[in-house]
Request: fold
Amino acid sequence: MSSVPLLLYACLGLLAQVKDVVHVWEVGPLTSSLLSAAMTGSALTHSPHHTTLLMMLDLSKPEELWATLEECLTIARSAMRMSFDDNAIKALRDCRKRENNPKNETYEGETEPFPLKLCIVGGRYDEFKEFNSDRKQLIGRALRAAAHALGAGLHYHSCRDTSLVRRAKDMLSHYGFGSQLTKGVCIDYEKPLLVPVGLDSFTQIGLNFGQGRNAHILESIKQMYVTHIPQTTKENENPQDLEDPANDPNFREPIIDRLRAQREEEIGILLQEMLEGRALKIPIPEPM
Reply:
């Protein structure tokens, strides 16, 4: 399983007139049950309409990038089905359609947005920018097209670039507290891409898929990408790399491991009771 995390974003809003708090869930290693627990937990205090998934992809590893994107989407969809019923998912998707297309205009060829708010973040731009122009353009076009098909934003990021760190903070404040994004779109493949939701199109990207289902569009984008950059297969991965690091024998802590296993079992039982309506919430113990 990919170690690239998904974030269900939030933090403390200090710049607004009224201080506010939203929650951050960093999910990795990525599993449907773990992500579902985060979705369910966030829905205890806020509507799912206020939840945003930030999907972090490693731009410096193009041979794993599309496989990771597909894996994240598959697990996120599975987690949603575990957390919400079909009517709730349909309501989320309909709301996204209205948000992304308030004038109800006819799209060119498109798309069923991802039910939850979604942003694709391409990390390690400081390494990616050293790639040749053709590769940067190929990866950028594929990510722009995927983001547009999913109704997602697209941001390139590097923790080693102060301007990109500042831009990331603006993005997080926007998703967490509704503040305005810094104006501007960057679709120059020689620069870090910045494409907010709804400000791109397949025509601008230079693609034409005609009328089609989302799955078909994403498959077409995938074929465009993997034809030039084949993806690393699961057979080539070390199975130990896919396991929970907590199970690594090099980091055994018998007492802590027993307490962790006990708490995970308790949370599993309480989460099941909550999903079945027999409990309102998971009790949080007082700190020791």
